[in-house]
Write a structure and sequence with these properties.
homodimer, 298 residues, alpha+beta, Phosphoribosyl-aminoimidazole Synthetase, Chain A, domain 2, 7-stranded mixed β-sheet
């Protein structure tokens, strides 16, 4: 059963407690009365989630950022982080990046564990703990027919950044281009502003079309997207790839069309009653693989 | 700086928030008013924390148990766990062990992440979240001169179990002998009973003498231990090794000598004003390495 999908399905059967949200959401949500705790744990593997030789300063930043992005999708405020580190090259860079991310993004380091490296790809993990007072805590599962489908910003920038980093290395000249891949920004304040208004929210980590299909499945609806309305940070001839690449960490959300949005966002579609397909792109089912499965958190 | 001790020292400078407890305790403790959250993240690496080829059922149990043991040392009750899993051999066994530990030890699965395996030693991580209403939440740092030093049970059983598993494999005949190594028990109810009474508590994960020295350093005292009074689950001629081996997960604690203990425990020494050495064994400093550093949580 060394197959991620089968493993997660089996795991889902174990995770029956309400806080687990059926392992179908970005985070666990534990209701404590006045406030809810919001928790997530994402791992990163060398060669999968970062390029071998990449500056560990950036890897540490990303490790923090991708976890906080999950909190952002709940409208949560970070309380603290626990880091699971495998020692190796550029540990000093890792520490500097961890400190910068912790300070800049407001997520104090609470603890964790450190292990030595025993060959193969290095594995890192991070647990982020946050809280929110807003109820209900938004999920992927609340999209309603008639709602507008929106996204906070463009996708595809991480794809372009990844390619530049892979092909040209990390140089002063391409630092701005590679930034979306190296150092994503978790949209914490945007998430807090949207949480009381949106019917469903998630962060786009694995590709817009794949993540949209997850929101559609969780909500029991179809998301009908307008291909041309989706903002991309890539050449127009790469639009189809930009919609499938991940790592941009925009927030995808649905909201009643009457709501005045508190933050800038792009309206990219509408929610329909559930049809045959989870996602439609200009009225047609999505062809080919909709995105990356490799970093599917559970 | 690929050295665990230097890395953790550097990490300590980042972790200035009170919840981190200076990375000198078993857990992070976040005060929420009525209750305190208690959090820990421990990793396990194949070939370091478990034997290659060992049944993953037991590895999953241990992954849960060692983290809950950290909660036990705070007198905390588990709320939930997040698991970081690297796919590989015997994933079905891992799931079964995870479910059994989660059910038996009362720690619901809240979520986590799953990544594919890319060579080398597999790495697993687990975050345990617990809570306690008792204040102050005990630490390693409260031992006072005159206190008795106590331990909940024998050490050395995991050493014997490890050797049997390594030399004879996992057979029906040695299952009882290997159990302390394969399937440690987190002493959650014992920790809850001790938390209001003990001046300092920690779990013994890396070797009694090493962990005692950590308690002594955190408390600014000397722990004077009576070698013969320390219960061991090993032949008498291996006493010195039993005091240095880890993985037994007993609770080591200090308590005012007038206190009537609510649970069975062994008095193994007394707390002195800080002298030249952190730990004395029959009045002498400890010779040689006091224990294992490899799984030092921070």
């Amino acid at each position: 059963m060394s197959d991620e999908r089968a493993f997660i399905e089996a795991l889902r059967r174990i995770a029956g407690t309400p806080a687990a949200r059926g392992l179908a959401d970005d985070c666990a949500v534990f209701d404590m009365g006045e406030r809810a705790l919001v928790l997530t744990h994402d791992m990163m593997v060398e060669g999968v989630h970062w390029l071998p030789g990449q500056a560990m300063h950036d890897v540490a930043w990303k490790l923090v950022a991708v976890n906080l992005s999950d909190l952002a999708a709940k409208g949560a405020t970070p309380l603290g982080i626990l880091v699971g580190h495998t020692l190796g090259e550029d540990d000093a860079g890792f520490l500097a990046g961890l400190e910068e991310a912790s300070d800049t993004l407001g997520a104090p380091l609470w603890g964790g564990d450190t292990v030595s490296h025993h060959g193969g790809a290095r594995t890192l993990g991070l647990t982020a703990i946050g809280q929110t007072e807003h109820r209900p805590v938004p999920s992927r599962g609340g999209a309603k027919p008639g709602d507008a489908v929106c996204i906070t910003g463009p996708v595809g920038g991480a794809m372009i950044g990844f390619e530049s980093l892979r092909d040209e290395g990390d140089t002063p000249d391409n630092r701005r281009v590679t930034q979306p891949y190296r150092r994503p920004t978790p949209l914490l304040s945007e998430g807090r502003a949207l949480a009381p208004l949106a019917s469903a929210i998630m962060d786009v980590s694995d590709g817009l079309l794949l993540d949209a299909s997850r929101m559609a499945e969780a909500s029991g609806v179809t998301l009908a997207l307008d291909r041309a309305a989706i903002p991309i940070a890539a050449p127009e001839d790469r639009r189809d790839e930009a919609l499938r690449w991940g790592d941009d960490y925009q927030l995808l959300f649905t909201v009643s069309p009457e709501v005045e949005l508190p933050i800038p966002a792009h309206r990219i579609g509408v929610v329909h009653e559930r049809g045959e397909h989870a996602v439609l792109l200009d009225g047609e089912p999505v062809s080919g693989a909709p995105g990356y499965e490799h970093r599917r958190a559970h």
